[in-house]
Amino acid sequence: MRGLVVEKNGIIHLADDIPMPEIGPYEALVKIECCMICNGTDMEIIKGGITEAQRFPLVLGHEGVGIVVRKGEKVCSYQIGDRVLRASLPDSEHYYSGWGSFCEYGVVKDSAAMLRDGYSFEEASGSLTQQVTAPDITPEQAALMITLKETCSALMRMGVERGNRVLVVGDGPVGLCMLSICRLLAIEADMVGNHRGNLKIAKQIGASGIYWNKDFEGMYHLREERKKYFDFYIDTVGTPQTIRQGLPLVREDGMVAVYGLRTGQELGIPLEGVRNVTLKFVQWPIPKEEMKTHALVEQGIREKKINTEFLISHRMELKDFEKGFQAIREKRALKVVLFMENNA
């Protein structure tokens, strides 16, 4: 079957010899409808920068959604025809799995059935976020739910709540998803970014204030007038520079929360004046926390409190993947969805 493969040198190609996965008694086979390019994790995998994905060649993709077409005899949580999130591909003789949703078929496990039959929570926990979506949620909305749920669970792990002053740094898809979840939860949030078009979208989503990094006057106001102002500084970029930028903006006993993955392997930050600031890394989803956000995010999309049209910028067929990745590299894209068949 076809799928996107990343080689050790970072070259991506469309392979047609990926083995069809075989399912066990607690698994279901999923025909993938679409998968989104993750501007963070997928792009870092291609660069070789993700510790959890260092074996190549690998099949890429973790933001996939598809339809259950076959299930094992012990499966109770999925029915034939269900649309499910996060189907993944197991390793094969020829290809490792970088979660593997950019492929024609994937597999989901039934964690509830495994727990029912005596498997440990650790054995079942990896599949907790392989959840069923409602029929009125489109495939691309379902795929976007993965980023929305990750950011929603991250906000909850940080402890953000209504009444807090929040500054989101980074106007890419993760930052805009963070902002969308803040709006859903009635939390006021400002945004700092590099792209005027994306900041315009942020304002449409509901940002209380927007700051363009190239606007000297606006950034001066942020640095000088809002020192120790914010309860939470959420860094969706994750560079040492953006982390340091936030330290003087957070109130005493506030939090700098790092979501972005560009921190590298070591981090140096100044401690002067920030000894009562919490630095928290939320760079990886925790399945048991992410699963709790499923109904909330789904309802937000259904009630149009989350406008997915603001966030999905490109729709393409899988064969046109190179255009999608190039649009992300050139900062022309937010979320790019690749369809397995001609549904773009």
How does the SSE layout of this entry go?
Elements: E1 3-6, E2 12-15, E3 27-37, H1 41-47, E4 58-59, E5 63-71, E6 83-85, E7 96-97, E8 105-109, H2 111-116, H3 121-124, E9 132-133, H4 139-158, E10 166-169, H5 173-184, E11 189-193, H6 196-205, E12 210-212, H7 216-225, E13 230-235, H8 240-246, E14 250-258, E15 278-281, H9 287-290, H10 294-302, E16 312-317, H11 321-329, E17 335-339
Parallel strand pairs: 4-7, 10-11, 10-13, 11-12, 13-14, 14-15, 16-17
Antiparallel strand pairs: 1-2, 1-4, 3-5, 3-8, 3-17, 5-6, 6-9
What features would you describe in this structure?
The chain is of the alpha/beta class and about 350 residues long. It has 2 domains: about 5-135 and about 310-340, Medium-chain alcohol dehydrogenases, catalytic domain (Quinone Oxidoreductase, Chain A, domain 1, Alpha-Beta Complex); about 145-280, Rossmann fold. It is built from 11 helices and 17 strands. The protein has helices at about 40-45, 110-115, 120-125, 140-160, 175-185, 195-205, 215-225, 240-245, 285-290, 295-300, 320-330; strands at about 5, 10-15, 25-35, 60, 65-70, 85, 95, 105-110, 130-135, 165-170, 190-195, 210, 230-235, 250-260, 280, 310-315, 335-340. The protein starts with a strand and ends in a 5-residue tail after the last strand. The mean pLDDT is about 95.
Question: What attributes does this structure have?
Answer:
344 residues, alpha/beta, Quinone Oxidoreductase, Chain A, domain 1, Rossmann fold, 7-stranded mixed β-sheet, 6-stranded parallel β-sheet, 11 helices, 24% strand, globular
